[in-house]
Amino acid sequence: MMNTVTFESMSGRVLRPADDLGLYLVSYDAAPPAPKTYYVDVDGADGALDLSEWAGEVKYNTRTVTLTMRDIECRGHEALTQFLTGRRVKITFSDQPEWYFVGRCVDNDESTRKRVTDQTYTFTCEPYKLAHMKTIIKRTLTETTLLIMLQAARKSVIPTITVDDDCTLVYNGNTYSLAAGTHVVPQIVVTDTPKIMQATGDGSFVIEWRDGVL
Question: What residues make up the domain containing 209?
């Protein structure tokens, strides 16, 4: 089955080149992003100090995604270029439909051979590709402390927490008191290392985030 690509603008407009414009995805490349490394040379010491994870985890540079579209009917490239050029979009490939890249089209290059026109588009994208479906954990709290295992994918995330009554959370050795409502607590970070959250209170408890992988 032929692989396809779907683009979605930040305003929600969706473009499917194969269906909407008669363009076919010839190939694409999404090489992993390079880590941001930081080495300090110390006189009199072997090698260098690797401080790449001084903030707690390694960070990554933007990644480049390139894809080539083929125009057999000679009618779609101009419309696709108009849609993409300079625009920040979500990019989903059919061979990994659960994930999408987020990036901006920064270049396109056309080549024609035997009346078939290929256009290569280059995007500067965020390091992580993101899950279309959020991870959502729902629990009902009681006065008895509830233990909830939290583990994200490769990307560390700050989740959204919604409770319909006052509750107390203990996570990573710290205690947080939340009133009824929706909260984002910057100190609560879910990583790819599993950790236990203790929750005490009444009513419903919902924690959600969007996973990211390299």
Answer: 135-213
